[in-house]
Amino acid sequence: MDGKEFLIIRVDAGTRLGTGHLMRCLALSQAWKDRGGQTIFVTACESKTLQQRLLDEGFEVALLKHAYPDRRDWEHTSRVLARHPGAWVVLDGYHFDSDYQRRIKEAGHRLLDDMAHLPHYYADIVLNQNLHAGELHYSCEPYTRLLLGTKYVLLRREFLDWRGWKREIPKMARKVLVTLGGSDPENVTLKVIQALQLADVDGLEAVVVVGGSNPHYEQLVYAIRECRFPIRLEINATDMPELMAWADVAIACGGTTAWELSFMGLPGIILVLSGNQQSVAEQLSMMGIDINAGWHRDLHPAEIAQAIIRLLMSPQMRMDMAERGQRLVDGEGVERALMCIKGEKLRLRRACEDDCKLLWEWANDPQVRAASFSSDPIPWEEHVQWFRRKMNDPSCFFFIALDDQDIPVGQVRFDMHKEHEAEISVSIDRKKRGLGYGPLLISKAVEELFRTTSIRTIHAFIKQRNENSIRAFEKAHFERLGIETVKGNLAIHYVRRRNNER
Known about the structure:
Layout: E1 6-11, H1 20-34, E2 38-43, H2 48-56, E3 60-63, H3 71-82, E4 88-92, H4 98-106, E5 110-113, E6 125-128, E7 145-148, H5 157-160, E8 175-179, H6 188-198, E9 205-210, H7 217-225, E10 231-235, H8 240-246, E11 249-253, H9 256-263, E12 268-272, H10 278-286, E13 290-295, H11 301-312, H12 315-328, H13 333-342, E14 347-350, H14 356-363, H15 366-371, H16 380-391, E15 396-402, E16 408-418, E17 421-428, H17 437-452, E18 457-463, H18 467-475, E19 479-486, E20 489-497
Parallel strand pairs: 1-2, 1-4, 2-3, 4-5, 5-6, 6-7, 8-9, 8-11, 9-10, 11-12, 12-13, 17-18
Antiparallel strand pairs: 14-15, 15-16, 16-17, 18-20, 19-20
Helix pairs in contact: 1-13, 6-7, 6-11, 9-12, 17-18
């Protein structure tokens, strides 16, 4: 054992089950790995491509030949659990029941269940990222914690790089993305290609994405050859966010992809491919985020074509759908879930435009001004200009800290002044002072900076009488170097180096 924390994920994927369960588990495992942990996928995954992706990501894969309720599933899975006592387990799939949960708990493991279909839950955490999650009844153990709603949507790492991106809405849309899941056993993709053929729109172009487990690939290749406008067929696309950014509209199903489209602000026409997708499609349509085309078997290509044309020709509709979608899914779901799994008091997110007023109010707090090297109040207009500069400055790393209720706790900013060196600035909301957040916020931010950048040394300058900050930085393992003069004030110079380097 190398001392790493293990996350064991029990999930399956295939032509019948689809790939959505595995892909959202992939999002959680990527974040776990980024925190220094190690993940084992215990899976009856049929796709060699998906198996290889898990291996390429650096995860261990324990393949099952027989999935639950076959008794050989638990015999194999329990052996993996026994090798990692006390590890967190994630269970994701409709074929797992309460008894399977109970066995995991009796084996001494903590458990997160990423579904909402059981008569009773033994899990420590139940995560349901759907819109209607809060309306359901959950029979749980007294210790079970519920994480409900779209604030917990789990997005893979490649999507998170697009946080804060704003979509441009053309007057006439012409770029269509078609993505109907990793397997599409009933070949609904072919029906959509036929619908595109009926859409009489000048300059139309499309990208059709299929998974490696799609059994109809050759038929789709032939159908595309007969098209009167360019269609590119992508198998196992490696950068879905880039394709979603390229497209003006999407035709998709009501599974995991619906949340990805919302996050990317991509207006979509949703086809319902399975019973569990119906409520998602209906609610997204009611909220004006997507168009619910209905059950795929009831649709004729001409009906799909009409919906496509209407959306392509309606810029205001597309703009409204994009804005509503991005408000619904903010990309912080994985961090919220990990915060709960790890029992953390706070988490960090990057500062964004919406934080401008809050940061101004914090900056003008009397205690903050007294601790600053320039104690005059900051005018609003001056703050706005400064904030915009910082947001556009690649040498500035700006974070907001939030508690487990998503309430802002404070801010931390790093400004690079030399190669591999930065200076830190921290403040805590006055309502959150005295609760131990200071050292925790500093330590967490420093660890994040060291993890994501090449910075090796962080400097802090603190007024001699600022005893609260002095204690906070010393608890966060900053080393005192001496006294210096900063803007006419005597200040203590502290430093923290990556891995305690000298």
